[in-house]
Amino acid sequence: MKKYLLVALATLALSGCITTQEEQSQQPQTPPPTTTAPVTTVPSTGTPETSGQPPVQTIPQPPKLQSIDWSATVQPLVAKMLQAEGVQAGSVLLLDNVKNSTNGSLQTGKITSAMHTALASNNTFTVVPASQLATAKQAMGLSPDDNLVSRSKAIALARQVNAQYVLYSDASGNVKSPTLDMQLMTVQSGEIVWSGSGAVQNQQ
């Protein structure tokens, strides 16, 4: 009888062990913790937008060129000339092209035109018309564009048109900022009754 009991107990003990092993095998196993390797950041060379493209070049703006305001330059000088002492009102005045004595090319026609405009409404002189002046130059064998390069030639032309006064003008110095000289002379004696000079005024 004891023998049977021992066999039964042994059988129960073995079955209990088997059941425990089966329960352990059915339980989910926890995975071992994973280790993350450190990430190394490699610095990039150049920005993606500009990498491989040529740099943008900025073109410098050229300096702004200033032009001369001949009207503003001439008017103050003409105003002083008209107030000169000893000038007989109603006299005929010869006004021809301005002489260019600068170190470059100068559009003297613009200066002469500004002088004609400044004298247009004066009550002191009667300016010789351009058509009469051109005819007188032709009679003397001069070119219509001839600048009166000497005072003696200017006086001779004034006598040809029966003028009493000559306004002799000369632009000198640097062509970019010349000085304008004016001389009012009598035709009869060649005497200089007024002279003035002024630096040019640039346009604003």
Automatic annotation (TrEMBL):
GO terms for molecular function: enzyme regulator activity. One of its GO terms (biological process) is regulation of cell shape. It is found in: Cell outer membrane. It is a lipid-anchor. One of its GO terms (cellular component) is periplasmic side of cell outer membrane. This is Penicillin-binding protein activator LpoB. Interacts with PBP1b. Its main location: membrane. It comes from Rouxiella silvae. Residues 1-20 form the signal peptide. Belongs to the LpoB family. It comes from the Bacteria. Residues 36-52 have a biased composition (Low complexity). Pfam families: LPAM_1 (PF08139), LpoB (PF13036). Regulator of peptidoglycan synthesis that is essential for the function of penicillin-binding protein 1B (PBP1b).
